[in-house]
Amino acid sequence: MAAPPAPARAAVLCGTGSFLPARRVSNDMLSATLDTSDEWIRTRTGIGARHFTDPGTTTSDLAAAAGARALADADPSGVDAVDTVVVATTTPDRPCPGTAPVVAAKLGLSGAAAFDVSAVCTGFVYGLATATGLIAAGAARRVLLVGAETYSSILDPADRTTSVIFGDAAGAVVLRAGDPDEPGAVGPFDLGSDGDGVDLITVRGGGAEQRLSGRPAEPGDRYFAMAGKQVFWQAVRHMAKSSRAVLDSAGWRVDEVDHLVGHQANIRILNRLADDIGVPRERSITNIAEVGNTSAASIPLALDQARAAGRLHTGDRLLLTAFGGGLTWGSTVLTWPNLAGPAQSTPTAPPLSRSQSRSEESTR
User: Fold this and answer.
1) 4 has pLDDT over 80
2) How far apart are CA 208 and CA 254, in angstroms?
3) Which of 45, 324, 329, 330 is CA-nearest to residue 201?
4) pLDDT of res. 2
5) Which of 72-86, 244-258, 332-346 is predicted least confidently?
6) Which positions are annotated as active-site residues?
7) Are 288 and 333 in contact (CB under 8 A)?
């Protein structure tokens, strides 16, 4: 007699964490050096402020700070070891190697599998899909997934179309192997891309394409560039289509969605997206007014802050969707789990890693 099939393994969210740099940059502060105003920025983007890192602070620093918070939330005792670290980022510490091994080392997780995901603002959703696949295949049991960005390092300070939009931040979740039917189980997914739109969201310089072109980089090639009007409509169209697809796969009706958690690109995009999908705007979780567009960090940061604000309750149905450079897009769903312990607000000072904490304890 054939052996019964092994039970399905799902990736279950069991912890969250986030980190914002302490330096808050208001619209008025940017208006002092740019031809812009608080009213102009708020009207077009919904952003009132963003956070930038100080010199010497890296993407891995932000990622490790958020990761430490998520690990402590998922397992305060520190007994359950994470075997995989995934970092979604557009702004790695170096072109080579990846940032994830550095983050793992800073958290005392050397030896864990560690790699980066590069899908710009869709990076966190792609990372969720990757972590879910690893857990389902039995290649991982417990995964730390971090979205972390230091966009201030790639913004042209003289370009008001981009420098007013983006901010630095990190958000993290811990995923464990579990039952597909339990609260916190992630999936299904809908993912897609269109490389014909590569020039709509890009940093032209620094890669093999520019280095092998036989010409020196132009001054602006090292900065992030975006075709805002074209991106607006592409973002709404692809996120709405992807959201409907994943709801169909999950067997959810639109009116069953308690919270829409879209990539925090622009408040007008988020409002138009909610309208197109048919989710009431008041069910859309947004934090863009105070943090700006934090790219791959935006969804996990929004989740952690919404949890701290008491907006998320066990059993709530969440629709997550994102759009970014590539072009890339993706969506997934989950039912919010019963996370132990009180929710806390986003810290603005890096917590000690577990290895640092143990080291300090030994010297007391």
Assistant:
1) no
2) 44
3) 324
4) 57
5) 332-346
6) 121, 263, 293
7) no
Record the tokens describing residue 147, joined without a space.
């979205």
| Cβ(15)–Cβ(173) below 8 Å | yes
Domains of the chain, residue spans? 10-363
Q: Which helix (H) or strand (E) holds 1?
A: none
The predicted model gives 49-63 an average pLDDT of: 97
How far apart CA 249 and CA 67 sit, in angstroms, is 31
Identify the H or E element spanning 169.
strand 169-178
CA pair distance 297, 122, nearest whole angstrom:
10
CA distance 206 to 213: 11
Beta strands at 84-88 and 113-117: parallel, antiparallel or unpaired: parallel
Q: How far apart are CA 155 and CA 166, in angstroms?
A: 8
106 half-sphere exposure, CB direction, 13 A CA radius: 21
Q: Are 304 and 147 in contact (CB under 8 A)?
A: no
- Reported as type and span, the H/E element at residue 238 is helix 228-250
Q: Is 342 exposed, middle or buried (0-12, 13-18, 19+ CB in 10 A)?
A: exposed
pLDDT for the residue numbered 215: 86
Q: What is the helix (H) or strand (E) element at residue 221, kind and residue range? A: none
Neighbouring residues of 359: CB distance < 8 A, sequence distance ≥ 6:
none
Amino acid 227 reads A
Q: Looking at the predicted structure, is the pLDDT value of residue 354 above 50?
A: no
Q: What is the CATH number of domain 10-363?
A: 3.40.47.10
Contact call for residues 66 and 148 (beta carbons, < 8 A): yes
Average pLDDT of the residues in 94-101: 96
Q: 243-280 burial, b if ≥16 CB within 10 A, otherwise e? A: bbbbbeebeeeeeebbbbbbbbbbbebbbbbbeebebe
Give the confidence band of 5 by pLDDT, cuts at 50, 70, 90: low
| Average predicted confidence (pLDDT) for the chain | 91
Distance CA 331, CA 347 (A): 28
Q: How far is Cα 150 from Cα 118, in angstroms, rounded to an integer?
A: 14
Banded pLDDT at 81 (limits 50, 70, 90): confident
Residue that is written with structure tokens 């980190």 in the block: 19
